[in-house]
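Problem 3 from the worked examples.
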Amino acid sequence: MLKGIPPIISPELLKALCEMGHGDELVIADGNFPCESIGKNAIVVRADGHGTAEMLEAVLRLMPLDTYTEKPVAYMEVVKGDACPEPAIWNTYEKILNRYAPDHHGVEMTERFAFYERAKKAYLIIATGETAIYANVLLKKGVVTA
Protein backbone atom coordinates (compact mmCIF):
# COMPACT_ATOMS: atom_id res chain seq x y z
CA MET A 1 0.00 0.00 0.00
CA LEU A 2 1.07 3.56 -0.63
CA LYS A 3 -0.08 6.84 0.84
CA GLY A 4 -1.98 9.26 -1.36
CA ILE A 5 -2.94 6.75 -4.06
CA PRO A 6 -6.71 6.38 -4.44
CA PRO A 7 -7.66 2.79 -3.51
CA ILE A 8 -9.52 2.40 -6.83
CA ILE A 9 -6.12 2.57 -8.59
CA SER A 10 -4.80 -1.00 -8.74
CA PRO A 11 -1.06 -1.70 -8.89
CA GLU A 12 -1.43 -2.70 -12.55
CA LEU A 13 -3.21 0.58 -13.34
CA LEU A 14 -0.68 2.65 -11.39
CA LYS A 15 2.15 1.06 -13.37
CA ALA A 16 0.43 1.79 -16.70
CA LEU A 17 -0.26 5.42 -15.70
CA CYS A 18 3.40 5.82 -14.69
CA GLU A 19 4.56 4.44 -18.04
CA MET A 20 2.51 6.95 -20.03
CA GLY A 21 4.31 9.93 -21.48
CA HIS A 22 3.24 13.39 -22.57
CA GLY A 23 0.63 13.13 -25.31
CA ASP A 24 -0.23 9.48 -24.65
CA GLU A 25 -3.96 8.82 -24.43
CA LEU A 26 -6.11 6.65 -22.21
CA VAL A 27 -9.74 5.64 -22.40
CA ILE A 28 -11.95 5.20 -19.38
CA ALA A 29 -14.53 2.85 -20.86
CA ASP A 30 -18.06 2.02 -19.82
CA GLY A 31 -19.27 -1.55 -19.49
CA ASN A 32 -20.49 -1.73 -23.10
CA PHE A 33 -17.24 -0.56 -24.69
CA PRO A 34 -15.43 -3.29 -26.70
CA CYS A 35 -12.25 -2.95 -24.63
CA GLU A 36 -10.52 -6.15 -25.61
CA SER A 37 -11.09 -5.92 -29.37
CA ILE A 38 -10.38 -2.18 -29.59
CA GLY A 39 -7.46 -2.48 -27.17
CA LYS A 40 -5.48 -5.18 -28.98
CA ASN A 41 -2.46 -2.86 -29.09
CA ALA A 42 -3.12 -1.17 -25.75
CA ILE A 43 -2.79 -2.10 -22.12
CA VAL A 44 -6.28 -3.05 -20.94
CA VAL A 45 -6.82 -2.87 -17.19
CA ARG A 46 -10.05 -4.30 -15.75
CA ALA A 47 -11.89 -2.25 -13.12
CA ASP A 48 -15.28 -3.94 -13.46
CA GLY A 49 -16.60 -3.07 -10.00
CA HIS A 50 -16.14 0.65 -10.52
CA GLY A 51 -17.83 3.44 -12.47
CA THR A 52 -16.34 5.81 -14.98
CA ALA A 53 -16.85 8.96 -12.88
CA GLU A 54 -15.03 7.58 -9.85
CA MET A 55 -12.25 6.32 -12.12
CA LEU A 56 -12.00 9.70 -13.87
CA GLU A 57 -11.61 11.42 -10.51
CA ALA A 58 -8.95 8.96 -9.33
CA VAL A 59 -6.95 9.24 -12.56
CA LEU A 60 -7.07 13.04 -12.56
CA ARG A 61 -5.72 13.09 -9.00
CA LEU A 62 -2.56 11.53 -10.42
CA MET A 63 -2.30 12.67 -14.04
CA PRO A 64 -2.40 16.15 -15.57
CA LEU A 65 -4.22 16.85 -18.83
CA ASP A 66 -2.25 18.05 -21.84
CA THR A 67 -2.11 21.85 -21.87
CA TYR A 68 -0.55 21.91 -25.35
CA THR A 69 -3.79 20.83 -26.99
CA GLU A 70 -7.07 22.72 -27.03
CA LYS A 71 -9.21 19.69 -26.21
CA PRO A 72 -7.38 17.06 -24.12
CA VAL A 73 -10.68 15.30 -23.31
CA ALA A 74 -13.03 13.51 -25.72
CA TYR A 75 -16.47 11.98 -25.21
CA MET A 76 -18.19 9.53 -27.51
CA GLU A 77 -21.09 11.56 -28.86
CA VAL A 78 -24.63 10.20 -28.95
CA VAL A 79 -25.31 8.43 -32.24
CA LYS A 80 -27.57 10.48 -34.52
CA GLY A 81 -31.10 9.12 -34.38
CA ASP A 82 -30.58 7.52 -30.96
CA ALA A 83 -33.48 8.43 -28.67
CA CYS A 84 -31.04 8.91 -25.79
CA PRO A 85 -30.92 12.43 -24.32
CA GLU A 86 -27.56 14.00 -23.53
CA PRO A 87 -26.04 11.65 -20.95
CA ALA A 88 -26.37 12.97 -17.40
CA ILE A 89 -22.95 11.53 -16.57
CA TRP A 90 -21.34 14.22 -18.73
CA ASN A 91 -22.45 16.79 -16.12
CA THR A 92 -20.66 14.72 -13.47
CA TYR A 93 -17.55 14.60 -15.65
CA GLU A 94 -17.66 18.39 -16.06
CA LYS A 95 -17.67 18.88 -12.27
CA ILE A 96 -14.70 16.51 -11.90
CA LEU A 97 -12.81 18.21 -14.74
CA ASN A 98 -13.48 21.63 -13.19
CA ARG A 99 -12.05 20.37 -9.89
CA TYR A 100 -8.83 18.90 -11.31
CA ALA A 101 -8.20 20.89 -14.50
CA PRO A 102 -10.16 24.13 -14.14
CA ASP A 103 -8.00 26.12 -16.56
CA HIS A 104 -7.70 23.62 -19.36
CA HIS A 105 -10.08 20.85 -20.16
CA GLY A 106 -11.74 21.49 -23.49
CA VAL A 107 -13.95 18.57 -24.50
CA GLU A 108 -14.16 17.17 -28.01
CA MET A 109 -17.36 15.38 -29.05
CA THR A 110 -16.31 12.42 -31.18
CA GLU A 111 -18.51 10.30 -33.44
CA ARG A 112 -18.76 6.68 -32.25
CA PHE A 113 -16.60 4.99 -34.90
CA ALA A 114 -14.06 7.86 -34.89
CA PHE A 115 -13.85 7.41 -31.11
CA TYR A 116 -13.18 3.69 -31.63
CA GLU A 117 -10.41 4.48 -34.13
CA ARG A 118 -8.80 6.94 -31.74
CA ALA A 119 -9.12 4.44 -28.88
CA LYS A 120 -7.25 1.85 -30.98
CA LYS A 121 -4.20 4.12 -30.69
CA ALA A 122 -4.56 4.69 -26.93
CA TYR A 123 -1.79 3.52 -24.64
CA LEU A 124 -4.24 2.41 -21.96
CA ILE A 125 -7.91 1.40 -21.75
CA ILE A 126 -9.53 1.12 -18.34
CA ALA A 127 -12.52 -1.24 -18.54
CA THR A 128 -15.05 -0.24 -15.90
CA GLY A 129 -18.41 -1.72 -15.02
CA GLU A 130 -20.21 1.57 -15.72
CA THR A 131 -23.84 1.00 -16.78
CA ALA A 132 -24.55 4.52 -18.06
CA ILE A 133 -24.49 4.66 -21.85
CA TYR A 134 -22.16 7.03 -23.73
CA ALA A 135 -19.99 7.18 -20.61
CA ASN A 136 -16.68 6.66 -22.44
CA VAL A 137 -14.08 9.36 -21.95
CA LEU A 138 -10.64 9.74 -23.54
CA LEU A 139 -7.86 11.73 -21.86
CA LYS A 140 -4.57 13.03 -23.27
CA LYS A 141 -1.78 13.06 -20.68
CA GLY A 142 0.02 16.30 -20.00
CA VAL A 143 3.40 17.20 -18.60
CA VAL A 144 4.06 16.48 -14.93
CA THR A 145 5.84 19.43 -13.34
CA ALA A 146 7.26 19.97 -9.87
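Problem 4, a separate protein:
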Amino acid sequence: MAQEMVKMAQEITMKEVPEEALGTILKTYLEQKIAECQEAIKRFEEKYCMNITNFYEKLDEEFGLSWEHEKDYMDWDWATAKLKKLKEKLGKLQIHGD
Protein backbone atom coordinates (compact mmCIF):
# COMPACT_ATOMS: atom_id res chain seq x y z
CA MET A 1 0.00 0.00 0.00
CA ALA A 2 2.73 2.50 0.95
CA GLN A 3 4.63 1.68 -2.23
CA GLU A 4 1.49 2.36 -4.28
CA MET A 5 1.07 5.71 -2.56
CA VAL A 6 4.69 6.66 -3.30
CA LYS A 7 4.24 5.66 -6.94
CA MET A 8 1.06 7.74 -7.12
CA ALA A 9 2.89 10.72 -5.59
CA GLN A 10 5.63 10.34 -8.20
CA GLU A 11 3.06 10.25 -11.00
CA ILE A 12 1.09 13.23 -9.70
CA THR A 13 4.13 15.42 -9.11
CA MET A 14 6.11 14.08 -12.05
CA LYS A 15 9.11 13.66 -9.74
CA GLU A 16 11.15 10.48 -10.07
CA VAL A 17 12.80 10.63 -6.65
CA PRO A 18 10.28 9.39 -4.03
CA GLU A 19 11.42 11.89 -1.40
CA GLU A 20 10.98 14.79 -3.81
CA ALA A 21 7.49 13.61 -4.77
CA LEU A 22 6.41 13.19 -1.17
CA GLY A 23 8.04 16.50 -0.21
CA THR A 24 6.13 18.31 -2.95
CA ILE A 25 2.81 16.84 -1.83
CA LEU A 26 3.53 17.54 1.82
CA LYS A 27 4.55 21.13 1.01
CA THR A 28 1.31 21.68 -0.90
CA TYR A 29 -0.72 20.21 1.97
CA LEU A 30 1.03 22.39 4.56
CA GLU A 31 0.54 25.51 2.44
CA GLN A 32 -3.18 24.72 2.12
CA LYS A 33 -3.56 24.24 5.88
CA ILE A 34 -1.60 27.46 6.54
CA ALA A 35 -3.96 29.34 4.23
CA GLU A 36 -6.97 27.90 6.07
CA CYS A 37 -5.59 29.03 9.44
CA GLN A 38 -4.74 32.47 8.08
CA GLU A 39 -8.27 32.81 6.70
CA ALA A 40 -9.81 31.84 10.05
CA ILE A 41 -7.59 34.35 11.87
CA LYS A 42 -8.47 37.04 9.34
CA ARG A 43 -12.21 36.42 9.88
CA PHE A 44 -11.82 36.88 13.65
CA GLU A 45 -9.66 39.98 13.22
CA GLU A 46 -12.26 41.49 10.92
CA LYS A 47 -15.15 40.50 13.20
CA TYR A 48 -13.56 42.11 16.27
CA CYS A 49 -11.35 44.73 14.54
CA MET A 50 -8.30 43.65 16.56
CA ASN A 51 -5.76 40.88 16.97
CA ILE A 52 -6.12 37.98 19.36
CA THR A 53 -3.93 39.54 22.07
CA ASN A 54 -6.11 42.65 22.26
CA PHE A 55 -9.26 40.54 22.15
CA TYR A 56 -8.04 38.42 25.07
CA GLU A 57 -7.24 41.54 27.09
CA LYS A 58 -10.74 42.92 26.46
CA LEU A 59 -12.53 39.62 27.02
CA ASP A 60 -14.79 39.92 30.04
CA GLU A 61 -14.28 43.71 30.15
CA GLU A 62 -15.42 44.98 26.78
CA PHE A 63 -16.70 41.64 25.52
CA GLY A 64 -18.81 39.68 27.95
CA LEU A 65 -18.02 36.06 28.72
CA SER A 66 -20.72 34.79 26.40
CA TRP A 67 -20.55 31.39 24.74
CA GLU A 68 -19.92 33.11 21.37
CA HIS A 69 -16.95 35.12 22.67
CA GLU A 70 -15.41 32.18 24.51
CA LYS A 71 -15.84 29.88 21.52
CA ASP A 72 -14.42 32.51 19.18
CA TYR A 73 -11.43 32.93 21.47
CA MET A 74 -10.83 29.16 21.64
CA ASP A 75 -11.14 28.78 17.85
CA TRP A 76 -8.98 31.85 17.24
CA ASP A 77 -6.33 30.65 19.67
CA TRP A 78 -6.37 27.18 18.12
CA ALA A 79 -5.95 28.63 14.61
CA THR A 80 -3.09 30.85 15.82
CA ALA A 81 -1.27 27.95 17.52
CA LYS A 82 -1.89 25.64 14.56
CA LEU A 83 -0.58 28.27 12.15
CA LYS A 84 2.64 28.54 14.12
CA LYS A 85 3.17 24.76 14.13
CA LEU A 86 2.37 24.41 10.44
CA LYS A 87 4.82 27.19 9.54
CA GLU A 88 7.51 25.50 11.64
CA LYS A 89 6.90 22.20 9.84
CA LEU A 90 6.99 23.91 6.45
CA GLY A 91 10.25 25.61 7.39
CA LYS A 92 11.78 22.26 8.40
CA LEU A 93 10.55 20.67 5.20
CA GLN A 94 12.13 23.44 3.11
CA ILE A 95 15.42 23.20 5.02
CA HIS A 96 15.58 19.45 4.40
CA GLY A 97 14.40 19.84 0.83
CA ASP A 98 17.21 22.18 -0.20
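Solution to problem 4. The CA atoms of residues 4 and 10 lie 10 Å apart. The chain has four helices and no strands.
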